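S1.2 Input.
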Amino acid sequence: MDEATTNTLRMRLEEVEAELRGSEQRYRHLFEANPHPMWIFDVETLGFLDVNEAALRHYGYSRAEFLSLTLRDILTPDQLPALLGWLTESQTDHRPDSEWRHRRKDSSLIDVEVASQVISFRGRDARLAMINDVTERKRAEAALRESEERLRLALSAASMNIWDWNLRTQRVTWSEDLELQLGMSPGTFDGRYETFLALVHPEDRAYVRNSVSKAIAERSSYRVEFRLLRPDGTVRWTAASGKVIYDEQGNAVRMLGTDRDITARKQVEAERERLLAHERSQAGALQKLAEASLAINSALALDDVLRLMTEAARELIGAHQAVTSLTVGGDWAQAITAVSLSDKYAAWRDYDQPPDGSGIYSLVCQTGQPMRLTQAELEAHPAWRGFGAEAGKHPPLRGWMAVPLTAHDGHNLGLIQLSDKYTGEFTSDDEAILVQLAQLASTTIENIRLYQREQAAREAAEAATRAKDEFLALVSHELRTPLNAMLGWARILRDGKRNEATIARAIEIIERNATTQMQLIEDLLDVSRIITGKLRLNVQPVEPAGVVRTACELLRPAAEARQIELNLKLDPGAGIITGDPDRLQQIVWNLVSNAIKFTEPGGRVEVGLERVDPNIRITVRDTGQGIAPEFLPFLFERFRQADASASRRQGGLGLGLALVRHLVELHGGTVRAESPGEGQGATFIVNLPLRAVRPQSNNSHESALTGYRRPQAQLLENLRVLVVDDEEDARTLVSTVLRQYGAQVTAAASAAEAFAALTSAQERPDVLVSDISMPEEDGYSLMKKIRETAPENGGLIPAVALTAYGRVEDRLRALAAGFQMHVPKPVEPEELAAVVASVAGRFERNTGSRFG
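S1.3 Output.
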């Protein structure tokens, strides 16, 4: 090829390249300048080949990120099958618009319309797609559909329909529900105004026409109520309202409105008018009923209520006879009856109701429904007994009616019955009046009975209050008596003029009275636990013979001191029961000590135990002062004593037998007392259920009152004990007791002082004994602070709560606060030493102790 040709080709090539660059620039300018998102993707791989800035902004990607995606990445998974169909459906270059849901980079979804065209892009089969975001349009369409549905539902719920009347063409369009209201099948209305007018009741058509004309002429609202005559002949009421639309020249062109079915309202109004008319016609009767109501309501006795009821019923309804019967305990053979008769029928005054309760009276009361019978029905009724049963005894009855007297809780009180109306038969209006009288009388009767019960309850409450007052006076006396002895002998001991015998006697008296006072307090606490339902049993298999024997042996010294013979007749093989051994022993101890107390010296107390299937029977019999017959029913009640006077011969609160009854009942048993009378002794019988299966072991029960083994004198030797109590006397007493058993005691008068002594001492205490009730900071708070302290600073020190709070909840609260044991005051010295030794790991305690 010569040089000229080469130059020519080179120049031509440069021209083509320049033309191509210009074409590329025009394409890029048009592609990027388009405000709609656009992209080009490969038909085979679906990968994106090019994208404009509008698409990048709309979808939130950078150009590199977008060109790394495929068409599948921006579609939701459920659209992929449709995508393949869309690509293969047509081979033409131009595609119709299609709707898709795309996912943007932030995962939000948009609805789009896509218009695409097949192109060749850089030598590859491709499609150019332009995107139109229709998300907001879709939302608006959905909101419109939802609004239309709500409107449809609202109109349907209100029985309301809409219509549109073109006044120029006389064509009417309305909702399908209106066609149903008019009794037409949906879609059968031909749209003509005259067709609608033909459905209006003939008597109302002129009224409807005139109302429409007036609304158009006066430019006023159209509101009218009229009847529609449906094709099937039924009549419905409708309330129509509308508004006229005018053009610019003031001509009426359209009328828009609603129709609402008001048939139910019209029926209610008609019924109300009927009732009002009926009430007006019965005004005189109602006035008499009101007067009778006032009289009955003001009655204070049942006889007056019955008399007023019968007289009012006969006069209001107009009957020769009225009988009101009030049953006594539901027995028709025992009924309070009032009779109101006209002179003509005075012979009925001696009429008696059927004694067996088999008459119509019983039938009315059992069903609880009123009953009306004509003369023929009355004579033919199989349940009828009485009137007309004997020929010539009574005049024939032309009618009979009865209404039950029913209490608010539904039980029957009696009935009121009328017979032989002056004129005609008894009507439903007569029955309604009688029902009102019966309701009024029932309420009055119940109020009278409620008042009588309230009076009885008030008297019982006043008696209980008097008993409590007497009991409180007795408690004061019984607590002051041992306290007086203790204080008196304490002052004698303080006096320097005393000898060993006086000292020994003083200590014995103080100890005995303190024990008595402690027992009184324990009984009061037990009663409190029983009343509040907080008394709990430690249930286990028990051999009752061992329990009875232990309780009696504890009381034998008291019996011997009073020269009373105490005999036991126990069957050791009687059987096993399930119960709390401590509480069972308390039952026996209370009964036997009570028998000893009320038996004169030289008398006898016998305690027996035997098996009387399905129970174990414990019997306590004495030859003492006995029980008066009138007091036997109240023997086991709280706050009751046969002799609560100031001159009574025996002390005590009278709670022992009440405790016995409650404890026996908690064990599923029963207790009763027998006595021939005063001075003839008494017998108490306790029945406790046997166990279903006898246990394998035959070991006898170890008394729970055994408590702790008596400790040795140096049990606490070299043991460091921190004692905390704000009361100096109590603090000194506890410190002295523990020192007597070898302990090294540090005393603190407050929680703050105790915490400082515990955390700052070089030789920290081994055991803490703390009171609970202290000013500023109590024992619970102290224990919480200690348990939050590090172990090396005494946070794990064993602790005993020594407190006057002895309830179950007090023990649980102490243990929850971090104490190892809860010991109620007062406590025996050896028991306190045993408890301290136990928490310190020096002493093993028996089960069944009162400590927890």
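S1.4 Remarks. The longest helix spans residues 428-494.
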